[in-house]
Specification:
single chain, three-stranded parallel beta sheet, 6 helices, about 140 residues
């Protein structure tokens, strides 16, 4: 992730922050995660993130990539790592996620937008999508 997201991530509850493009940051976080929710939907190397997982850790692919992801199998076997896949889920899974967030006071930063703002929002996201702010379309205000 981008270093400029650290302050915002900690503001919404992150205890630590790892910059995946910084080797020192990656080494410091080695074997410290039980779970990685990988939402990247572009080509990338999963092997880059496996050293972050503790033994028996799980990397869940949530971002759909249509090209193959080659994975070095030795870490999977010797460290009992798991790679799983999941779509967003249905109503029960969504409710479970909302309940978890509520229990742990995890609240996203949002920006309410109307239909007339969508062109600017699309341009902003297309140029550089490194904001933690989520755009929420206000349908009533868009009428």
């Amino acid at each position: 992730t981008s270093p400029n997201k650290e302050e915002a991530a900690k503001e919404i509850g992150a205890d630590t922050f790892v910059v995946s493009t910084n080797p020192e940051s990656m080494n410091a976080a080695g074997m410290s995660l039980d779970l990685i929710l990988n939402t990247v939907s572009a080509n990338h190397d999963l092997n880059h993130y496996l050293p972050l997982l503790a033994n028996k850790g799980v990397l869940v692919q949530m971002g759909l990539v249509l090209t193959p992801h080659p994975v070095v199998q030795a870490p999977l076997m010797f460290r009992k790592l798991t790679i799983a896949g999941s779509l967003i889920g249905g109503m029960p899974e969504t409710q479970e996620c909302i309940d978890f967030c509520s229990k742990h006071n995890i609240v996203p930063k949002i920006k309410m937008v109307t239909a007339k703002d969508l062109g600017a929002v699309y341009k902003e996201l297309n140029n550089k999508n490194d904001s933690i702010v989520r755009n929420v379309l206000d349908i009533e205000a868009s009428k």
